[in-house]
Write a structure and sequence with these properties.
The complex is a heterodimer of chains A (722) and B (330).
Chain A lengths: L17 H5 L15 E7 L5 E7 L1 H5 L3 E6 L29 E2 L5 E7 L2 H10 L1 E6 L22 E3 L2 H6 L3 E9 L11 E7 L2 E6 L4 H12 L6 E4 L15 H13 L3 E4 L4 H4 L7 E9 L5 E13 L10 H5 L5 E11 L12 H19 L3 H7 L4 E2 L4 E2 L5 H12 L12 E2 L2 E13 L5 E10 L2 E7 L9 H13 L6 E4 L16 H24 L9 H7 L4 E8 L3 H4 L4 E13 L5 E11 L6 H20 L30 E6 L18 H4 L1 H13 L10 H6 L7
Parallel strand pairs in A: 1-12, 10-11, 14-15, 21-22, 25-26
Antiparallel strand pairs in A: 1-5, 2-4, 2-6, 3-5, 7-15, 8-13, 9-10, 9-12, 13-14, 16-17, 18-19, 19-24, 20-21, 20-23, 24-25
Chain B lengths: L4 E4 L3 H10 L3 E4 L5 H6 L7 E4 L8 E3 L5 E4 L4 H5 L2 H6 L1 H8 L4 H6 L2 H6 L5 H4 L15 H4 L22 H7 L3 E5 L5 E5 H4 L18 E7 L7 E7 L10 E10 L2 E10 L6 E2 L1 H7 L6 H12 L11 H18 L3
Parallel strand pairs in B: 1-3, 2-3
Antiparallel strand pairs in B: 4-5, 5-8, 6-7, 6-8, 9-10, 10-11, 11-12
Helix pairs in contact in B: 5-10, 12-13, 13-14
Classes of the chains: A alpha+beta (722), B alpha+beta (330).
The structure holds flavin-adenine dinucleotide and iron/sulfur cluster.
Keywords (chain B): FAD, Flavoprotein
InterPro entries (chain B): CO_DH_flav_C (IPR005107), CO_DH_flav_C_dom_sf (IPR036683), Diverse_Substr_Oxidored (IPR051312), FAD-bd_PCMH (IPR016166), FAD-bd_PCMH-like_sf (IPR036318), FAD-bd_PCMH_sub1 (IPR016167), FAD-bd_PCMH_sub2 (IPR016169), Mopterin_DH_FAD-bd (IPR002346)
Protein name (chain B): Xanthine dehydrogenase family protein subunit M
Chain lengths: 722, 330
């Protein structure tokens, strides 16, 4: 009898799909060979507010290869929300080309379908649209009177913040801003759709297939059973591919109207205006502490914007409800409708930006208290989530801070800014705590075990997606672990909405959900086979032996994992700490992030290699928030003046230097049975503040507005007491 | 992109002829700027004349003891040429600070001189822009102009020239060799090559229609020992300069015999700091003189609504570049 092969989980194996990707064999949405395919391109509005008065498509339709131009005049009727400004959800309908109304610059006003991509693109230029233009609402300041409370979860309070502030020895009131940012995954949003006999089949770059299915079905008012989505590989999403955007609906409509499969690719320029963005946030912080450094009050008030026709907000203040112990706490969120596209989730929505404000403010308080910023955070640690009034399932923030400080050499830090100089460089150290909710959601998986040449092979199927994070690999590892067979015998099939339903990839729930879904499916397989073979459930028998003894050559079973009651009774978060050393040129305002040490406690690490990549990616994106990422809006016209990756600056290798990533050994069995927590977003949450805090330590300049560019550093003045 | 025809010229003469025949033809260098602008519908040539196969493809010494850089040699091959690395390291430093290795491999020397501004209004065809569409107005002047000019702009345009290479060429007092439509060659001092916007911002240079750049001439090398290219930008590579300074010093017996100074990112053309150069000549290379030179250089700066930071930044950058140039260990 064979003994069970264990511990595939936790090994730093290479991605099982790595070779496919580097050899170009992995197929992305727009790459599937589909016969008879035609190409669609969106024409976008050149005003931010108003009404189309006429659309002349004659010239465009005359061009060689052009099949059809769709506008609101000849478009299919689609489902629209009854509300004036519906809330954005992952299953929201996405009506397009339904009316002459213009809500933002870059809105689709027509769709050209042609035999080739080039023909479609050229003809787009020839569609002549005239408008009756209104003055758009672009400026947040000028529209403050329109601020509204978006929903019941927007506000929270415990205790009395004003009283807490009054009784504090040291107080701080400061406002932080973070700009509009864009996700810009490497792979452009794209799809190939065919509408045949009332059924929609689409290859589409989507993160969550089951929700996307609902959105497409609802928009076209058809049954979900008639929609199939295939997303075998995605070149990143960062939240922008969570929901269905209008291009996918436009292509589906085109296919329905002309009876041929339609390919659509959103251009990089259109990805600024049509596939979501992180919204601009203005965060007012109020903190009070006694002389011992114990927080007495913490308030976090966020003002942001949404679209005039749809509502979304990232909850920046949520982090302030749970991260530190404070008796008095208040959080609010307000939105101002502007003529800009509806924002959506970008990596760690709320946490990435909220933690910048909170963790900068904590640093400011530490400076005022003349306390070490690490000690100040530790002093205010809490093992209970006071906001949710639940215990944490596990929380190793203090350990992350201590171990990180040690590895980083934090004790070398000088409290006084500008005290550490090296030639033309001012050297600074900064720290920030990181936290990100680690959700876990109901997930199903199918396992098919096959006996071939005396060996067991298994195929795992789920509608989950691999957005570049390594889902294929960790699913294979988990299956190998629970089936007791080698990873090389596992075949993973993801990204088909006909497979068992998962919550998809997003919100840091992918790894925990997928792994547990696979675990249950594998366990079910064993149970069934044992029953068939008449083996007692508790007996340990290898899969091979079980299949042999019961003469089964192929067996298929589905399993579903669900959060436990214990999970519901706890607050489940991943925690971490980031330490940064930054060198700032004393004259030019240029700076370099010399090194970072990041410590994370994120439950059981399924694969240190892919996990490490996730943190590196998060840190890189976080560094981007500080260095340069920002989308600027033209104040008169409402268009984005950053409109390609040549002017929307993401970090380059040289910006980052050395990054040291450490995971604390942990298994959070309350979170889920395998003890896994998400890490996809944890990395980004701590970076911006740690770098801004290091810049303060280097220069004595408190930078409260991201990004921190050379011109802002040159113009900033020294903080009091420096 | 609009449909266009492609012509592969094999001699300079052929190229000129094709340009003369077709009113809206354009020469195609590496295409790294032109093709982008065609995709954006900013440039709308009906013919592209390929010049990669022309004879202007080498780097050789010239009669004046300097170097002649062929117009179709790539930016990479130019920057990394052993003689340039040795005798004109300022040019190497400036060129390698630009774009990315991939873009530099494609980009040609002629094309680099003629790359167009990165003003976002210029790129967005729905916005007003006098450079793209004369008479439509200047969007940047009353809009977003943090990255725009502080010197030499006009009411009709406040854009800056984006090239790094050209800033070094201005400091080095290069000349541009041009094949005219009549088949004759002319030499243009670098300072006269690019122009200020005035009332005609659609014209970036003093080249006449159809004229072909064949080479760039560098005078004898005098700044090989003391040079520095300082580029201030938002990220460490692959970003245009917010502002840049090319500085070359020739030191004889502890005195500055000659200074070559130019700034990028501040004007419609590479901005030669002639007054500061003259001031430094014959002075000792001291921090104090560098500071004085910087003050002189920035005296005429007139910032726009959003780019006031360029004045203090520019002054500090000049001092820093001169210091780095002087202290460079040979
Ligand atoms: C993303 C990005 C980032 C960049 N960053 C930088 C940077 O940081 N610093 C920097 O300096 N540059 C930067 N560049 C610009 C780059 O240096 C230029 O695009 C390049 O030098 C242009 O050369 P080319 O041969 O490709 O020109 P092309 O695009 O082929 O041509 C440009 C123009 O010159 C004309 N032309 C070309 N050759 C001749 C000739 N011999 N005679 C007459 N006319 C001619 C063409 O007709 C065209 O009008 C960047 C470019 C990109 C795309
Ligand atoms: S600055 Fe020049 S290029 Fe920019 S909008 Fe004005 S005219 Fe056009």
């Amino acid at each position: 009898m064979k003994t069970l092969e264990t511990s595939s989980i936790g090994k730093a194996i290479d991605r099982i799909d790595g070779r496919l990707k580097v050899t170009g064999m992995a197929k992305y949405a727009s790459e599937f060979p589909v016969e008879n395919v035609v190409y669609a391109q969106g024409v976008t509005s050149t005003i931010a507010k108003g009404k189309i008065t006429s659309i002349d498509v004659t010239e465009a339709e005359k061009q060689k290869g052009v099949i059809k131009v769709i506008t609101y005049k000849n478009a299919e009727k689609l489902k629209e929300s009854d509300e004036k400004r519906p809330a954005f959800t992952l299953t929201s309908v996405a009506p397009v080309l339904q009316s002459p109304e213009i809500h933002y610059y870059g809105q689709y006003v027509a769709c050209v379908v042609a035999e080739t991509f080039e023909q479609a693109q050229y003809a787009c230029r020839l569609v002549k649209v005239t408008y009756e233009e209104d003055k758009p609402d672009i400026d947040l300041d000028k529209n403050r009177s329109k601020a509204f409370k978006p929903d019941d979860q927007a506000d929270y309070s415990r205790g009395d913040v004003d009283a807490g502030m009054q009784s504090s020895d040291v107080t701080l009131e400061a406002t932080y801003t973070t700009p509009i940012e864009h996700q810009h995954p490497m792979e452009l949003h794209a799809a190939i759709v065919s509408w045949e006999n009332g059924k929609v089949k689409t290859y589409a770059s989507q993160q969550i297939l089951n929700d996307a299915k609902t959105a497409i079905a609802d928009t076209f008012m058809i049954s979900e059973d008639n929609v199939q989505i295939i997303a075998a590989y995605l070149g990143g999403g960062f939240g922008s591919k969570l929901n269905v955007h209008k291009h996918l609906i436009m292509a589906t409509m085109a296919s329905k109207m002309i009876g041929r499969p339609v390919q659509i690719t959103v251009t990089r320029q259109q990805m600024f205006t049509n596939t979501g963005m992180r919204q601009f946030d203005e965060q007012k912080m109020r903190l009070g502490a006694n002389k011992k450094g114990e927080l007495q009050a913490l308030a976090h008030h966020t003002t942001s914007h949404c679209a005039t026709d749809q509502m979304y907000y990232e909850a920046c203040g949520n982090v302030s409800k749970m991260l530190y112990k404070t008796p008095n706490n208040a959080v609010t969120h307000r939105l101002i409708p502007l003529n800009l596209q509806v924002p959506n989730s970008m990596r760690a929505p709320g946490e990435a930006t909220g933690s910048f404000a909170l963790e900068s403010a904590m640093d400011e308080m530490a400076w005022k208290l003349k306390m070490d910023p690490v000690e100040f955070r530790i002093k205010n640690d809490t093992q209970r989530d006071l906001g949710a009034d639940k215990p944490f399932s596990s929380r190793l923030l203090v350990e992350c801070l201590r171990i990180g400080a040690d590895k980083f050499g934090w004790s070398e830090r000088k409290m006084q800014p500008r005290a550490n100089q090296n030639g033309n460089w001012l050297v600074g150290y900064g720290v920030s705590a990181a936290s990100r909710r680690a959700p876990y959601r109901k997930t199903s998986a199918r396992v098919i075990a096959d006996m071939r040449n005396g060996e067991v092979y298994a195929t795992i199927q789920m509608d989950g997606t691999d957005i570049g994070t390594g889902s294929y690999t960790i699913v294979a590892q988990t299956a190998a672990e629970y089936l007791g067979i080698p990873v090389k015998n596992i075949n993973v099939e993801l990204g088909d909405s006909d497979f068992p339903v998962t919550p998809g990839s997003g919100g840091s729930w992918g790894a925990a959900s997928y792994a547990n879904g696979v675990r249950v499916a594998c366990k079910n397989l064993f149970s069934k086979l044992k029953q068939n073979a008449g083996v007692a459930e508790e007996d340990e028998v290898a899969l091979e032996d079980l299949m042999k003894s019961s003469k089964v050559t192929s067996y298929k079973v589905v399993g579903t994992a669900e959060p436990s009651e214990e999970y519901e009774n706890h607050s489940v978060f991943s925690f971490g700490a980031n330490f940064a050393e930054v060198w700032v040129d004393k004259d030019t305002g240029m700076y370099r992030i010399k090194r970072m040490v990041n410590v994370g406690s994120a439950g059981k690490i399924l694969n240190p290699k892919t996990a490490y990549s996730q943190i590196i990616g998060g840190l890189t994106m976080g560094a981007g928030m500080v260095i340069a990422e920002q989308t600027q809006v033209e104040p008169h016209h409402g268009n984005f003046i950053t409109r390609s990756l040549a002017d929307y600056h993401v970090p380059v290798n040289l910006d980052l230097a050395n990054i040291d990533v450490v995971f604390l050994p942990e298994e959070d069995k309350i979170a889920n049975e395998i003890g896994v927590k998400g890490i996809g977003e944890l990395g980004i949450t701590s970076v911006a503040a740690s770098i801004a805090n290091a810049i303060f330590n280097a220069t004595g300049k408190r930078m409260r507005d991201l990004p921190i560019t050379p011109e802002k550093l040159i113009e900033a003045s020294l903080e009091a007491g420096v | 992109m609009r449909p266009f025809k492609y012509i592969n010229a094999t001699t300079g003469e052929q190229a000129l002829q094709a340009a003369e025949q077709h009113e809206r033809a354009k020469y195609l260098g590496g295409g790294t700027n032109l093709v982008d602008l065609m995709k954006e519908d900013v440039e709308q040539p009906d013919h592209l004349i390929e010049i990669a196969d022309l004879e202007y493809n080498s780097i050789k010494e010239n009669k004046k003891g300097g170097l002649t850089l062929g117009a179709v040699v790539s930016n990479s091959d130019t920057a990394n040429h052993p003689v340039i690395r040795q005798k004109y390291p300022l040019l190497t430093m400036a060129m390698l600070s630009a774009a990315t290795a991939q873009i530099r491999n494609m980009a040609t020397n002629g094309g680099n001189l003629l790359q167009r501004t990165r003003c976002p209004y210029f790129y967005e065809t729905s916005m007003p822009c006098n450079k793209r569409e004369p008479g439509s107005g200047c969007g940047a002047k009353k809009g977003m102009n943090a990255k725009h000019a502080i010197f030499g702009y006009s009411d009709s345009c406040v854009a800056v020239h984006p090239s790094d290479m050209c800033v070094a060429l201005a400091a080095l007092n290069a000349e541009v060799e041009v094949l005219q439509i009549n088949g004759k060659t002319k030499m243009m001092p670098f300072e006269d090559f690019h122009r200020l916007p005035g009332a005609q911002p659609e014209k970036d240079t003093n080249l006449d229609k159809g004229e072909l750049i064949t080479a760039i001439h560098l005078p004898q090398s005098i700044y090989a020992d003391h040079y520095y290219y300082l580029k201030i930008r938002e990220r460490s590579s692959y970003a245009f300069a917010l502002l840049s300074v090319a500085a070359g010093l020739q030191i004889k017996n502890g005195i500055i015999a000659s200074a070559g100074l130019a700034m990028g990112g501040v004007a419609h053309k590479p901005w030669k700091l002639t007054k500061a150069e003259q001031f430094l000549k014959g002075k000792s290379p001291s921090e104090e003189n560098f500071q004085r030179a910087a003050t002189i250089a920035m005296e005429d700066a007139k910032p726009l609504a959003e780019n006031g930071f360029k004045v203090p930044m520019g002054e500090k950058a000049i001092v820093r570049a001169l210091n780095q140039a002087y202290n460079r260990k040979v």
